[in-house]
Fold Ion transport 2 domain protein.
Amino acid sequence: MYHMLWLLLRILVFLLGATSVLAALLSAIRTFVLPRSASDIFSRNVFIAVRMLFELRKRRADTYERRDQIMELYAPMSLLALLVVWLLCIQLGYTAMFWGLTDGSLYQAFKISGSSLFTLGLAFVDTFPAILLTFTEAAIGLLIVALLIAYLPAIYGSFSRREAAVTLLETRAGSPPSAVEIIKRYHHIGGLGDLTEVWRGWETWFAEIEESHTSLGSLPFFRSPQPQRSWITAAGTILDTASLINAAVDIPHDPQADLCIRAGYICLRYISRFFRMPFDPNLAPIDPISISRVEFDLACDELAADGVPMKRDRDQAWRDFAGWRVNYDTVLLALAELTDAPRAPWTSDRFLIHPPRLLARYRKIKCQGGRLRHFVDGRALLPGSLEPLR
């Protein structure tokens, strides 16, 4: 009876070890090989754990430049930590399998597993099942390291294409990027009526970002070469520019701007969904946004003072702008905080104006008629404003 229980225990440990190895291998395949976004518990938990450590260190930083310097290592360190976790799970899994298959001690099984995984040749058991495990463990270890090496060029290729557009935006939008600045500069060079190619180029950029930033889950956290640049503030600036021009600038309507906005908010929503960030996909044009009417009026006044032709009906222009902005407002701010983006107008500056961190974390409560209203500190927000109802 005792021998039977001991045999069952060894079989159970062997199966648990095989499960651990299989889980690590599938996680590596989802991360490195699968060409689509897929939820992976290993990657998610490792990135969260490393982020917690970086957040502790970041608290001591008193300037954004210092915070950016700290966070620049977050994505690379998380990838290396993920590799370590995979290798550890594989070694422990094979340790359990070697212990369940041989008569040696747990220490001997651990030694054989480590020797096989790192191809050291320090220890082995000369039986066919054990040799078979040794070969498979060595092959899996080499495979995961090779996948990581092959994964890095894909990351940096997508990173380079992303940053090329972000860098070019600085010549058009200034630093930090501003939608108002873009419109003023294009007005000065007489280009306001010829923005179709700009919208088309950024529509393509949004499509590429959606694919790369969900299939390569670490890519959103790779920071731009310059501290004041960020892919998310660039995205917000382009979307706000298109929304402002559609709503308030008195030039012929360009349908390509509509397509650019749609491509942008679909992209940001998919990325937010990949990171499990909540948002309401069924928003109405009258739902609240993080831009106040006062800010909108100040932007329009600045454009008008610079000679930009503006529409006369400011109230309708505000309603149109809010109707466009509401599609991407919540996800834009959420991703700006997630990536710790540099301060930029109407994007990452929202967290400094409104103390509750991450405006995307509104508590959404159903009101009469089943519609969702937004609440902060128990007070409802007016549609199109952050001013609470009194």
Q: What stands out?
A: Residues 352-390 have pLDDT under 50 and may be disordered. The longest strand covers residues 372-376. Residues 174-359 form one domain. Residues 363 and 378 are 9 Å apart (CA to CA).
